[in-house]
Amino acid sequence: MAGPLLDRRDAVEGLLRDRGDLLVVSGLGSATYDCAAVDDDPRNFYLWGAMGGTAAVALGLALAQPSRPVLALTGDGDMLMGMGTLATIGASSPQNLSVVVLDNEVYGETGAQPTATAHGVDLVSVARGCGMEAVEDIRDMNAVGTLAGRMQRCEGPLFANIKIDTREYPRVLPARDGAYLRSRFREAVLGTSP
Q1: Domain parsing of the chain, residue ranges
Q2: ∠ at Cα 126 (120, 132), nearest 5°?
Q3: Rounded distance, CA 193 to CA 189, Å?
Q4: What span, in angstroms and rounded, lies between the C-alpha atoms of 193 and 4?
Q5: Fewer Cβ within 10 Å of end Cβ, the chain: N or C?
Q6: Distance between CA atoms of 94 and 62, rounded to whole angstroms?
Q7: Whole-number mean pLDDT of the chain?
Q8: Helix, strand, coil in percent for the chain, rounding step 5
């Protein structure tokens, strides 16, 4: 990776610090661990093991809740697996959706094998080609703060790729019970329980 790299957990904290009404769908692994470590909020929907599905689930949520900002927070491996969703997001153009990729160029959950971004695949260009407003690779915390503000103002569909280092942190594991997470999220979003 050319240029400076951000601390992953600091970047997530910068995105969620003043989250307001933001709904978050986080991908498997580090994205979920960091959301839980920074802000285990009932408005976080953790996707345990749904690799490639983060942006698609967030798109559905954004379409169902058009007045609320929605963030798909995921890693480069997950985004590469679900890259076709970017075309659907571009075509449907939900103004309240932001997709943020934490890109360390490795599959962190399976042994740090290089992802396609390590070999030159440019997710920003892919998102832009799909009709999303794509922010260049983010490599400083000021840009993370600017991005967080734009997410709140629903200036989407917005795509950002945050270049992060490969440092590992102690894992903060939120609940893994899917029925509980669904109910908790539904109550937080709709004010009702099943």
Answers
A1: 8-190
A2: 145
A3: 10
A4: 45
A5: C
A6: 7
A7: 90
A8: 40, 20, 40
Higher pLDDT, 28 or 16: 16
Q: At what angle do helices 30-39 and 8-16 cross, to 10 degrees?
A: 50
Closest alpha carbon to 75 in 51, 93, 97:
51
Q: Which helix (H) or strand (E) holds 185?
A: helix 178-190
Question: What are 116-120's contacts with CB under 8 Å, separation 24+?
Answer: 116/80, 117/76, 117/80, 118/1
Q: Which two structure tokens, joined as six digits, stand for 68?
A: 């609320």
Mean pLDDT of 147-166: 92
CATH of 8-190, one of 3.40.50.300, 3.40.50.720, 3.20.20.210, 3.40.50.970: 3.40.50.970
Distance (Å, whole) CA 98 – CA 78 = 15
In this model, does residue 41 exceed pLDDT 60? yes
